[in-house]
Amino acid sequence: MKRILLFISCLVPLAACTVTGHADEQKIMRIANTTPEDRSLSQALYQFAERLGEETNDSIQVEVYTNGQIGGDRELFEGMQFNTIQGATMSTGPIAQFVPTFNVLELPFLFEDEENAYELLDGPIGQDLLEELEPQKVIGINYFENGFRVLTNNEKEIETLEDVQGLDLRTLENRWHMQIWSELGANPTPMNYGEVYIGLEQGTITGQENPIGNVVNSHFYEVQQYLTMTNHIYNASPFMVSEAFWETLTEDERQAVEKVADEVQYNQRLANQQEAEESRRYLEERGIIISELTNEERQRWITETNPVREKFENIEGNYGWMQRIQEHIQATNQE
């Protein structure tokens, strides 16, 4: 599938980096993700590299590593903590392994559409969540977009709750994702993203759930026949930097990082929505059977997963976050 953003397409060779605090010395900023290079999330990192060089007159040299080249999500987050990696973007699910507060964004059916998610993430609630990263020695800049998660499998068309029963399904290595699918009647199996294709091909799992762009760019459609637009979780992908690296930057450089990250966020979100539309057409052209949940059926799924939200709220410290989000969504829906 064609690339959506016309950014730099070559990788700078991996080099040992020395970050200094002197304004007149070039700083090396290695940024990374685990996403395939053709996806908008990866292309956004190349745009960030190019634009930051322009904004800082090359006082910061950015090296980009996509597709898990230098580690999975856990390794990337830990790399930022130790400043061996200076920046990364990843979904909120893996972040929640380090900052459990982010699990509030892993709850099912929080957002009706992307704009609803943007209003929350770009407002006070989203910014307060980013501040939760600071005790982990990571600075949250803003939120890129991974997209709504959809369900695929190679057994049958899934249109109702009953169709989900007994499905052997790969999930993120996240407690709440597993509980969602347990409540819906599937058999959830946590698995590293890099192992999903082989698991589907060998029959270890018969289904998986991911944003539709991943279904295309990771070639899951080669070993899956059915896709259901469940949109059960909206995945933001925070853009973060190492606190140790941040402290080496001048005030002008910090402002440049924030300015460029906001530009890239806007472009990447638009590109991701376009990517989702193109991915759906691409899959349809290849004979993948795509289903939608009716409004009535969607409400059944929401009701069936209520225990997940209740369990989350009952954990100390979670109720306040859930209450703030619910109040925000209710106020938004009334506008």
For this structure, the CATH topology is D-Maltodextrin-Binding Protein, domain 2
Percent of residues in β-strands: 15-25%
Under CATH at level 1, the class stands as Alpha Beta
Distance between the termini: 38 Å
The major beta sheet can be summarized as: 10 strands, mixed
Number of domains: 1
Rg estimate, integer Å: 20 Å
Query: Got a strand count?
Result: 10
Number of helices: 14
Structural description of this entry:
- With 335 residues, the protein is of the alpha/beta class.
- It has a single domain, classed as D-Maltodextrin-Binding Protein, domain 2 (3-Layer(aba) Sandwich), CATH 3.40.190.
- It has helices spanning 40-55, 73-82, 92-95, 114-121, 124-131, 161-164, 175-183, 196-202, 212-217, 243-246, 251-285, 295-304, 306-313, 318-334; strands at 27-32, 60-65, 87-89, 138-153, 168-171, 187-190, 207-211, 226-229, 234-242, 289-292.
- Strand 5 (168-171), helix 7 and strand 6 form a beta-alpha-beta unit.
- The longest helix is centred in the last third of the chain and has 35 residues, at 251-285.
- The protein is globular, with a radius of gyration of 20 Å.
Spell out the blueprint of helices and strands:
Elements: E1 27-32, H1 40-55, E2 60-65, H2 73-82, E3 87-89, H3 92-95, H4 114-121, H5 124-131, E4 138-153, H6 161-164, E5 168-171, H7 175-183, E6 187-190, H8 196-202, E7 207-211, H9 212-217, E8 226-229, E9 234-242, H10 243-246, H11 251-285, E10 289-292, H12 295-304, H13 306-313, H14 318-334
